[in-house]
Amino acid sequence: MGLSAIDYFDIGVSRYPDRPCLVCEGETLTYLDVQRLSCRIAHALERSGLALGTRVAVLGHNSNMAFACVLGVLRAGGTWVPVNARNATAETVHILNHTDAQFLFYSGRFSDTVAAALSACPAIERAICIDEGGIAGHPSLDLFCAGVGTEFFRRIIDPDALATLSPSGGTTGSPKGVMTSHRTWGYRIAEVASRLAHPAPVNLVAAPMTHGAGAGALEMMPLGATHVVLPGFDPAAIVAAIEKHGVTHMFLPPTALYRLIAEPGIEKARMGSLAYMICGGAPIAPERLRQAHALFGNAIHSGYGGTEFGGGLCWLTGVEIAAAIAAGDTDRLQSCGRPSPLSRLEIVDDAGRPLPPRETGEIVVDGYVLASGYYKNAAETAQAFRPGGFHTGDIGHRDAEGYVHVTDRRKDMIISGGFNVYPSEVERVLLMHDAVQDCAVVGMADSHWGEVVTAVVEAKRGRDVDVADLEALCRAHLAGYKTPRAFHKWEQLPRSPVGKVLKRAIREQLAAERVD
């Protein structure tokens, strides 16, 4: 029949029952503790009438109990719907309605959000507060589970049934529900096991568990990893956790990595335990990669992944990064590594024909790690999940040695005066400036050029950025048509709940400023 996602967790329990599984805010739960807790939650869900495949949302900051609820949902045969704690209420309503969620586990900190959301989400049948401060009439998790035991619980689950229904990043519009089966999770777990082997892994969950950090945690549980869970991203807390717990693995998106390496005093921290400091989710600037390598050594790795195809499609190892730095090979640092041997990656033209090395086109992925499509969205599914593979919407090329370079998102490419400008190329130059914390480059409509290259920069804490210096830096490293014609200094760039810069929101704000 095949294994389900929870079966892989139980394999981890069978091998490491007494090893710490979840560590958060002074509470430590062993693998056996977590298994028993997830069984109790699964028994309670079954008693409440949860049918196989029922959508169950979990809303809350990273916590031991949130992870336990996710495992309980999977054990009961439900489908986990991750809801990011940083979402606006309207986003939460969209996700709950779009995924047809019927059960909701939530933290009491979000009672106001839940109260507002439930009035607009008629499909929700049960809402359970997983800690304190829940809405009157909603049972606590203890009350919900009252009268059921912790006896081992296992349902027979079709491996092709949905394990997760995850909102996509939503940087270019409303998030889509990405359907991922239990079978696909099995392939992704195998991918992680092949890449992240370690005799005693300690994984730090600092980014939201609703996205890459949570997926990575589930994928490492069969390996017996101890997961040190931070409620949210805090550079000082990350450094302290690495030192205290001997962290070996962690994942951060580039914007979070930039904040971490800018943390005062980080160069004095004791971080020798790190074996895998993984950065992915967006292109990382070579200058920042050099800075990260100076701090973390060969532990720093970068890669390329996505909700639709997992987190380990391409991999640039710490050894490869070190070699590129030593050789002064900036081009190699701009790559995300070579594709996994378990997947196929092609660069194709607009007609879908494979392109030779150095030719730029769309990145297409195929393999058993692919999701099943977009929930209730046949048009988007047909557009992206084609017979030849998943069309990522990312633009890139391979070099002569097979390393993949992700140039940009197709939708973000700027056409100025008939020339193609890839924003990430300009952003990499801007990030060379010592005072720039982060930046975004977008195209704004122009009657003469079609679009003009426009840069928005966010300065480091306590620093200022001189626009003339930025322009000079760009002119020194870029062709004239790629140099921004306008620079804007913003205190903070708009970001999605997972930390990705929202270029759509930037374009809208800049357009509104023009009108004003």
- Rg is 23 Å
CATH secondary-structure class of the largest domain: Alpha Beta
Mean pLDDT: 93
Q: Shape, please?
A: globular
Tell me about the largest β-sheet: 9 strands, mixed
CATH T-level topology of the largest domain: Rossmann fold
Helix content percent band = 25-40%
Please state roughly what percent of the residues sit in beta strands, choosing from under 5%, 5-15%, 15-25%, 25-35%, 35-45% or over 45%. Answer: 25-35%
Overview features:
GMP Synthetase, Chain A, domain 3; nine-stranded mixed sheet; 26% strand; globular; single chain; 3 domains; Rossmann fold; five-stranded antiparallel sheet; 516 residues; 17 helices; 33% helix; alpha/beta
Question: Nutshell version of this structure?
Answer:
With 516 residues, this protein is α/β, with parallel strands linked by helices. The chain folds into three domains: 5-181, Rossmann fold, CATH 3.40.50.980; 233-409, 3-Layer(aba) Sandwich (Rossmann fold), CATH 3.40.50.12780; 415-515, ANL, C-terminal domain (GMP Synthetase, Chain A, domain 3, 2-Layer Sandwich).
Overview of this protein structure:
The chain has 516 residues and is of the alpha/beta class. The chain is built from 17 helices and 26 strands. A hairpin with a 2-residue loop joins strand 22 and strand 23. The longest helix is centred in the first third of the chain and has 17 residues, at 31-47. The protein is globular. 51% of the residues are buried.
